[in-house]
Amino acid sequence: MKDFLAGAGWGAATVSPWLGDASTRRYARLAMAGRNAMLMDQPQDAEGAVAPPGASEDVRRALGYNAVARLAGADCARFAAAAAWLRSHGLAAPDIYAADHKQGFVILEDLGDALFAEVLANHGGEKQLYEAAVEVLAKIHANDAPAALSADKPLFAYDEAALVAEADLLVEWFLPLALGRKATDAEVSEHRALWRAALAGIGISRRVFVHRDYHAENLLWLPERRGVARVGLIDFQDAVAGSTAYDLISLVEDARRDVSPELAEAATVHYLAAMRAQGTPVDEAAFRHEMAVMAAQRNAKIVGIFARLHKRDGKPRYLAFLPRVWATLERDLAHPALADLRAWYDRVIPKDKRRVEPPLSKGKA
User: Fold this and answer.
1) Mean pLDDT computed over 182-204
2) Residue 152 in contact with residue 124, Cβ under 8 Å?
3) Cβ(32)–Cβ(110) under 8 Å?
4) How many Å apart are CA 174 and CA 180, to the nearest integer?
5) CB 14: neighbour CB atoms within 10 A?
6) Confidence label for 96 from pLDDT (cuts 50, 70 and 90)
7) Beta bridge partner(s), residue 208
8) What is the dihedral sign for C-alpha 135, 153, 213, 340?
């Protein structure tokens, strides 16, 4: 890392570790001669394989979760390519100053500390911030997803195989935590079949660039900028080509903060209006159906991810978010299109088994 920083002209910078996230990436803030930047450090042996374009579902499953779910893994070049694509559309993704993709180091523009979550907690202004975030989505959705982010980085489809693999996480990681046993083969097969049925036709008619983790912890407020550039974008390395509904659901059904039904509805209405205003209207009934399915799928995935972060990665703090995510998932499953899935969850993981208490900290009662 020291050699990389020196070669990039940042060898004299003060390096201050920054708060980490749920991934294997590490960050540090660089300060030198009145200039700031961020250092991304992606360990190159910490993630699984990425499947080549066109690989079958069986091949992807054999390579592991990252391959089937279409995650970027340790591929820093994909982050850089996605950032360049977003900036080319007038959006505030960080500029890349230097990179060593083989070693997993990237120096990128410092967009500051004004995460939406922090601004909302300290200053309010939900309506303005959520409208701005929705307008960014409309800007992205003005065009179909590109086939590739760069010459050697195709934008993978957020296909049924990936979506089902994500929903599998709930059965693989949360069910054992809740019930004290692994899921049976029959339970796994039935769960997958129900999700395949629910996802039929979703995101097929039109695919757009999907950030995939579009929420208040990954958006920064940049009020000194204008228009859609007021919203800083980070953590988009796993971007895919998928449903127009996905990122909006990620925003309004936030696993880490409460979003009122009224605000969620206002954001949805604002999105529909923004799409009409720019000449790319969507069928509202079909869009709301797609929102319902994507909401349930995303929250099922998050239940599994938070259980995995606790069990596999030793990060029990994520269990504290599970009551909110389960409550949201239960509301999502109330949609008529998801009745069979709701029945499966109620039968296999009854409501009294869905609350898992975080372990007590050492030395505390």
Assistant:
1) 95
2) no
3) no
4) 10
5) 11
6) very high
7) 242
8) positive
| 301, 329 Cβ separation under 8 angstroms | no
Around Cβ 265, how many Cβ atoms within 10 Å? 11
Lowest model confidence (mean pLDDT) among 33-47, 89-103, 127-141: 33-47
DSSP string for residues in 280-310: ----HHHHHHHHHHHHHHHHHHHHHHHHHHH
Backbone region of residue 298 per phi and psi (left: phi > 0; alpha: psi in -120 to 50; beta: other values) = alpha
Hey, what are 113's tokens? 């500390």
Q: Nearest-CA neighbor of 275 among 264, 285, 266, 283?
A: 283
Length of the chain in terms of residues written: 365
Write b or e for each residue in 132-170: b if 16 or more Cβ atoms lie within 10 A of its Cβ, otherwise e: bbbbbbbbbbeeebeeebeeebbbbbbbbbbbbbbbbbb
pTM of the model: 0.93
Tens-digit pLDDT profile for residues 288-334 = 999 999 999 999 999 999 999 999 999 999 999 999 999 999 999 99
Q: Which whole-number Å values give the CA distances from 156 to 72, 242, 251, 292, in the listed order? A: 10, 9, 22, 23
Distance separating alpha carbons of residues 248 and 141, to the nearest angstrom: 11
Q: Which residues contact 124 (CB under 8 A, 6 or more apart)?
A: none
